[in-house]
Design brief:
By secondary structure, the protein is an alpha+beta fold. It is built from seven helices and 14 strands. Strands 2-1-3-4-14-7 form a six-stranded mixed β-sheet. A four-stranded mixed β-sheet has the order 12-11-10-13, with helices on one face. The protein has a two-stranded antiparallel ribbon with strand order 5-6. The longest helix is centred in the C-terminal third of the chain and has 25 residues. It is globular.
């Protein structure tokens, strides 16, 4: 059984949990306590290994029964293909956005369901993995590689070498692996969604989350029912960036750094790292982060000030981001490293044709929290079964 390789983070009312593998599950539902294995957090281990500090028991014992139930859960996920979709080369940090049914802010931000969203903008390193996987021979199907990624010697982060070995035609430029990918259209981001949905590797870019079938221009298709990964709606994006969290009527910040004051500009070092790190009311905007010969430039994700209330970074500044809202045009949010403070505020939104690439446009994806929800729910069932077993033994 392959395990989830994507990092899952829960960010709500100050409580967080991470799941690097199914072997380490730090929060569970039911009466078993905060962890499947009580006591200190255990390192990922073989499914048959006992909990640290607990004796191994036979199948008649409660812990073993719980383990069997959990293994059954992941067997179902494996057979359904869900586990495959979360286990592949590109590793993504997710945060969970809760407070379902929250109020809106001047018509934006109300979301009825929980969802996951990328903690950081999609990077050049991640996009290179995508390119080499789906285009190993460098034929550039459906224009997924924009030549400006290569020819822009200041802000473009990906090079192309037709003479390189198959599967290695695309490479990250020096110091650009952790910068947000740019020069991507909405259709490019939708193809990444399909590829992730289909398990990465040789997975299709044309069907899954979106039915594209070669489309690169025109009216963008709607997201398909059952999509696992997709571009966030404008409301989802807005909530993840600006909502204060901790309830359904918590209110909104003006900036995605949990502030109503204009952020201080970040500068950049010679490697393109933002001067703020991941703390404080800072942002990369208004052409202040000069490096690599640029009058302002993209900077390393997560180094340009503090996170939103849910734990996302760079949703004010760095690059603008595509959303899933709109048809002939798609809404774009977040501002970029060029614009003034008014363009990185919550009040600013605009839209573009979905086939528009630019040095200042990137994306981050959303996802459904189904795997963790299934695990938590069935873990609760396992814990309830263990409780019933203990009550029977006590009689």
């Amino acid at each position: 059984m392959r395990m989830f390789s994507a990092t899952w983070q829960r960010a709500a009312t100050g409580k967080r949990a991470e799941m690097q593998d199914v072997g380490l599950l730090q929060e569970s539902a039911g009466s078993c306590g905060k962890r499947i294995c009580a006591g200190k957090a255990a390192a990922p281990r073989a499914p048959s290994a006992p909990c640290p500090g607990r004796p191994r028991r036979g199948l008649g014992g409660g812990p073993a029964v719980a383990a069997v139930v959990l293994l059954g859960v992941f067997g179902v996920l494996r057979m359904s293909g869900v586990a495959d979709q979360y286990a592949a080369a590109v590793t993504i940090d997710w945060v969970e956005v809760l407070d379902q049914g929250n109020t809106s802010d001047s018509g934006y931000g109300a979301v009825t369901d929980a969802f996951l969203i990328m903690k950081y903008e999609f990077t050049n390193s991640q996009y290179v993995e995508f390119l080499n996987a789906v285009d190993p021979n460098g034929t550039n199907p459906n224009a997924i590689f924009n030549s400006s990624m290569n020819s822009d010697n200041i802000g473009g982060g990906i090079s192309f070498n037709s003479g390189a070995a198959s599967g290695s035609k695309y490479a990250v430029k020096t110091n650009f692996g952790d910068k947000p990918v740019n020069y991507v259209t909405w259709f490019d981001a939708a193809r990444v969604s399909n590829w992730l949905h289909n398990g990465q590797g040789s997975g299709s870019t044309e069907t899954g989350a979106y039915t594209l079938n070669g489309q690169t221009t025109g009216t963008a298709p709607a997201v398909n029912p059952g999509a696992v990964y997709y571009l966030p709606t404008e409301n989802q994006w807005y909530k993840a960036a600006f909502y204060k969290g901790g309830g359904t009527n918590a209110g909104y910040w003006d900036y995605a750094t949990q502030s109503d004051s204009d952020p201080t500009h970040v500068t950049a070092d010679s490697n393109g790292n933002g001067s703020a790190g991941g703390i404080g009311n800072f942002a990369n905007y208004q052409r202040v982060a000069d490096w690599n010969g640029g009058d302002g430039n993209v900077t390393t994700v997560g180094t340009n000030g503090g996170p939103s209330a849910y734990g996302t970074f760079d949703m004010s500044g760095n690059v603008k981001e595509w959303t899933n809202t709109g048809t002939s045009n798609k809404a774009i949010r977040g501002g970029d490293y060029v614009g003034a403070a008014q363009f990185i505020r919550s009040t600013f939104t605009f839209d573009l044709a979905p086939d528009t690439p630019a040095a200042t446009i990137g994306f981050r994806l959303a996802a459904v929290p189904e795997p963790s929800t299934l695990v938590m729910g069935l873990a609760g069932i396992a814990c309830a079964g263990w409780g019933a077993y203990r009550r029977r033994r006590a009689r």
